[in-house]
Amino acid sequence: MCNLYSITTNQAAIAALFRVVNRYVGNLAPMAGVFPDYKAPIVRNGAEGRELATARWGMPSSQHAMMEATKKRAAKLEAKGKVVDFKELLRMEPDGGTTNIRNVKSRHWTGWLGPENRCVVPFNSFSEFNKAEGGDIWFALDETRPLACFAGIWTSWTSVRKVKEGETTNDLYAFLTIEPNAEVGAIHPKAMPVILTSPDEVEAWMTAPPDEALSLQRPLADGTLQIVARGVKEDTAGLGT
């Protein structure tokens, strides 16, 4: 599971590579470490063309997951003798979101697979954790950490992300995963992000019918990625580029 990546390329380069028409971001500072629930840039389809926006990392969790979490919270409250309004408790259940999406056939995800909810998530490197190998292991397309992107989806959603915030409405995103290629599999055998590396792949993901777009949910060819850092929480190489 990828729960950490970096995006250090400036927004002008992001806009140029992904043919952005509108930018709904202010000063987009380089992010050497993007963690779950952080706000980070995405490129999505807008009414006038592609737009660069920021969104919080973590799509809404499934209704089943939220129901189970609320049942546990209700049981704890009831054990303390408190009266529980389950419907209200469910509405206010904190949800940090789902960062990685593997099973795109799940009913929970199918409604967000149309072009209007697809996005690409720019990145320069991403990390998989392996304690035996030194902790956070960072991968990129090569040592220069060129700009690439994950295949993602996004939505606008009203929920409680954190208790202290209460109920808020946010743009949220997550990206697809798949079984790993050789390089990532040696560190994290369960999964790797779905990475798009060419303009044709980006175009297909952003515009093609779902069946065609989802054919891009595949691991990169072996030899495509390389390890660029080990044992650091943030990949600071390339900051300011």
Q: Please give the order of strands in the largest beta sheet.
A: 3-1-8-9-14
Return Rg in Å: 19 Å
* Average pLDDT rating: 93
Task: Give the distance, in angstroms, between the N- and C-terminal Cα atoms.
Answer: 27 Å
Sequence of secondary-structure elements: EHEEEEHHEHEEEEEHEEHHE
Structural category: alpha+beta
Please tally the β strands and state the result: 14
The quaternary organization reads as single chain
Provide an overview of this structure.
It is globular and about 60 Å long. The strands form two sheets. It has a five-stranded antiparallel beta sheet with strand order 3-1-8-9-14, with no helix packed on it. The two termini are 27 Å apart. The protein contains seven helices and 14 strands. It is of the alpha+beta class. A hairpin with a 2-residue loop joins β4 (39-46) and β5 (49-57). The protein has helices at residues 11-17, 63-79, 86-91, 107-110, 182-185, 199-207, 210-213; strands at 5-7, 22-23, 31-34, 39-46, 49-57, 100-101, 118-123, 125-130, 135-140, 148-160, 167-178, 192-193, 195-196, 226-230. 21% of the residues lie in helices and 33% in strands.
